[in-house]
Design goal:
With 130 residues, this protein is of the alpha+beta class. 30% of the residues lie in helices and 41% in strands. A 7-stranded antiparallel sheet has the order 4-3-2-1-5-6-7. The radius of gyration is 14 Å and the shape is globular.
């Protein structure tokens, strides 16, 4: 299965963690070769009561963009395999690691959670919906 399709499966976990209030953060890491872009950090924000995602592109300087949840998936997909080899989803239930190897085969592994608390923005958003 192409890595873009498996990334959609991985990203469904991102969407679920946003809905169920367990999302802590998402990071794109492990670049291929010598690249100016080192990481992309994703965190939720509320804009006029609408849940959006902030993408922080880590170069020598930082570039910040705000996108919808679906648009973020499509943007992050374009950075897979060029220049990033991995995406890490941190939730309060588990850490999910999406990796491409040198042959572009995908592995998704699960680890114990690194974060005990979800993003405060997610909790605020979910409280506002009740």
């Amino acid at each position: 299965m192409p890595f873009t399709e498996t990334f959609n499966e991985f990203y469904s976990n991102v969407q679920s963690s946003l809905v169920d209030g367990t999302f802590a953060k998402l990071t794109m890491a492990k670049t291929i070769g010598n690249t100016d872009l080192k990481n992309i950090y994703v965190r939720p924000i509320l804009e006029e009561g609408v849940l959006q995602l902030e993408l922080k592109f880590k170069h020598q300087e930082e570039l910040i963009e705000i996108h919808s949840i679906i648009a973020t998936r499509d943007i992050l997909k374009t950075y897979l395999n060029n220049p990033f080899f991995s995406a890490l989803l941190f939730t309060t239930e588990k850490d999910l690691v999406y990796k491409l190897n040198k042959k572009r085969a995908v592995s998704i592994s699960q680890k114990a959670p690194s974060f005990a608390h979800a993003s405060p923005v997610i909790l605020e958003y979910l409280l506002g919906k009740k």
